[in-house]
Amino acid sequence: MKALLIEYKSVIKFILTFLLVYIGLSVVYKLYLNASEGSVYYPDYITNLVAYQSEALLYTAGYKAEVVKHTLEPSMKLMVRGKYLARIIEGCNAVSVIILFVSFVVAFSGRLKTTFFFLLSGSVIIYVVNLLRIVILSVGLYHYPWRSEILHSVVFPAIIYGMVFLLWMLWVNRFSNIGKNNG
Fold first, then answer.
1. Residues 168, 87: contact at Cβ < 8 Å?
2. Which residue in 13, 102, 87 sits closest to 43, CA to CA?
3. Domain map of the chain by residue range?
4. What pTM was estimated for this model as a whole?
5. Contacts of 29 by beta carbon, 8 Å cutoff, 6+ apart
């Protein structure tokens, strides 16, 4: 057993680090969500911000968009030209995806400065790509409502998780200690 632990030390370290960071950040995020209940920003500040930034991007793209508070659930209604297309819920704000991204990068550590700047730039990229995917989904739903299932269940996740995967591959192959040792 001891020989197995020694042989797979780096794998065990990765898994434990990933889990600790993921659980820690998830707990902090849950505390943030609980503290957001009843705040001015509905349903929480980040989701509210994503909703209004999506509205602004749609407007910039030539679509008369409007975001309004959903009265029956904690979400924001996204409407284009008066047509209710989608609801923006807490899960649409990309925070959970960023937590997953951060946990992986920290678990495959690199130099502290490099890790910090990669986490910062990667999180910004994920946030921006998330806004773009909401806009793409909204435009798709506006023009092709009969394709809503494939847009939301295939295209929507493929965009954001594809970006996260590309960032992970870049991190492992170019910046992490493992990538440097193999390159």
1. no
2. 87
3. 2-177
4. 0.91
5. 95, 96, 99
Residues of the chain with pLDDT under 50: 183
47-90: per-residue pLDDT in tens? 999 999 999 999 999 999 999 999 888 899 999 999 999 999 99
Report which residue type is found at 102.
V
Q: What SS3 string covers the chain?
A: CHHHHHHCHHHHHHHHHHHHHHHHHHHHHHHHHHHHCCCCCCCCHHHHHHHHHHHHHHHHCCCCEEEEECCCCCCEEEEECCEEEEEECHHHCCHHHHHHHHHHHHHCCCCHHHHHHHHHHHHHHHHHHHHHHHHHHHHHHHHCHHHHHHHHHHHHHHHHHHHHHHHHHHHHHHHCHHHHHHC
Residue closest to 80 by CA, chosen among 144, 159, 150, 156:
144
Per-residue tokens: 64: 């008369």
Rounded to whole angstroms, what are the CA distances from 25 to 114, 120, 177? 20, 15, 23
Specify the amino acid at residue 67. V
On the CB side of 171, how many CA atoms lie within 13 Å of its CA? 27
**What is the distance in angstroms between the CA of the first residue and the CA of the last residue of the chain?**
32
